[in-house]
Amino acid sequence: MSSVRTLKQIPRYLAVILMAMTLVVLPGLASPAFADEWPDECSPGSEGTALNQTPWHVQRMNLDLAHPHSRGTFPDGTPVKVAVLDSGVAMDHPAFGGRVIEGADGHSSDAHHGGCDSDGHGTVVAGIIAGGSEEGVRYTGIAPEAEIIAYRTLPAAELVISESDRPLVSLAIEESIDLAVAAGADVINISAGSMHTPGLEAAVERALASDVVIVAAVGNESEFLDQAPSDVPAYPAMYDGVIAVGAIDGSGAWNAMSNYGSAVEIVAPGIDISGPAPGGAGYIHGVNGTSFATPQVSGTVALMRAKFPEMTVDEIRERLFATADPPGGPDNNFYGWGIVNTYRALTDMDPTPLTGDEEGNAVQPQEQTVEQWPRVVDPLRETKMAAAFTLIGSVALIIVVVVLRKLVPVGRSRGWAPGTRKNLDE
């Protein structure tokens, strides 16, 4: 009898399995509201693992050549202040050596959780900018003596933010920009993107007018920004005056997940990146995206501000672009002015772009036509394959359920005796 009861429950079990598979493989179908994911308190994320070798991106930035010229402190010994608008920063991680100031939450002026990171995104970003104080670990940030001001503008970086929730994110970034300017930030790093709003654009303009450099990620949707819809989450990177950053991999090649177009101004390492973990110890490895290319540039700008304190925002931008390593061809829709070169940005006596007119005036490389773009990698390939396999599996399970709903009553009616042509036809 127990076998009979089990068989009677098979269709119900299969239905539950089907629902579970769909929710696991396609979480976007049940994305929670952004506001519901914003906790009143912050619980630190997990500790990381040991770092046994110097990450490739640290080596790629040639910091051993750059740091004798600047480490992120002004001539009077005060540190350059870099505001990080992100998921928060684990301020107690030894990589920072106590150089993290806790800012307010972008969503609540009464809450100060910027020094806590439940996700890890912001801590890695801050580590790329100003890590390097942990003794015995072969990891250093671009500006290891700079100071971080941490603002929590995102509750969790992995959260899929719906279109209807983007105004809330834009508002958090907008308010945090103003807070950072008021706190005396010299550089603002925004490794996130949201939609355009008049308030966000105005906050950017106020910061630039206050001589604060803003560096922002162009995003990872693999969108051609010149033809993208107005709500593409690529702001504030697309605003005039903001240094817009794309990502390259370890070979120096543009990464296909990056958004591209005339808004892209410079690129930096953003694939297979390591950085401090949010739990206050250890390191995270193998993270990817323009989010992690952006702090490579912000750190470089911090060194430049320390080395050349008299330079304005526009002069910093011009020098940064003029000293970048240009791409091997007319690829400025992907590379902008080229790959950031921290050492040249600090040492070139009279930098001029490696691409220019006969008089040495700055001229961006010739743009490619749409037909020439090497769009050979689909960044959503794995997601699409997972969805396809889920659909196929779902159809197969439905067929099994239908068949069993037919066979189980027949088997029960004949006492589960071996089937014959006669009793199957009854």
Your description of this structure?
The chain has 426 residues and is an alpha/beta fold. It has 13 helices and nine strands. The strands form two sheets. A seven-stranded parallel β-sheet has the order 2-3-1-4-5-6-7, with helices on both faces. The protein has a two-stranded antiparallel sheet with strand order 8-9. Helix 5 links the parallel strand 2 and strand 3. Helix 5 packs parallel to helix 8. The radius of gyration is 26 Å and the shape is globular. The chain starts with a helix and ends with a helix. The N terminus and C terminus are likely disordered.
> Termini, distance in Å?
23 Å
Number of helices: 13
Number-wise, the strands total 9
Q: Provide the CATH superfamily of the largest domain.
A: Peptidase S8/S53 domain
By CATH, the architecture of the largest domain is named: 3-Layer(aba) Sandwich
Briefly note the structural class of the backbone.
Answer: alpha/beta
The tally of structural domains comes to: 2
Largest sheet: 7 strands, parallel
Net shape: globular
Q: Which blocks of ≥5 consecutive residues have pLDDT under 50?
A: 1-37, 356-385, 417-426
Proportion in β-strands: 5-15%
Whole-number average pLDDT?
78
Tell me the strand order in the biggest sheet: 2-3-1-4-5-6-7
Q: Assign the CATH topology of the largest domain.
A: Rossmann fold
Radius of gyration: 26 Å
The CATH class assignment of the largest domain is Alpha Beta
GO molecular function, one term: serine-type endopeptidase activity
Organism: Natronoglycomyces albus
Keywords: Hydrolase, Membrane, Protease, Serine protease, Signal, Transmembrane, Transmembrane helix
InterPro entries: Peptidase_S8/S53_dom, Peptidase_S8/S53_dom_sf, Peptidase_S8_Asp-AS, Peptidase_S8_His-AS, Peptidase_S8_Ser-AS, Peptidase_S8_subtilisin-like, Peptidase_S8_subtilisin-rel
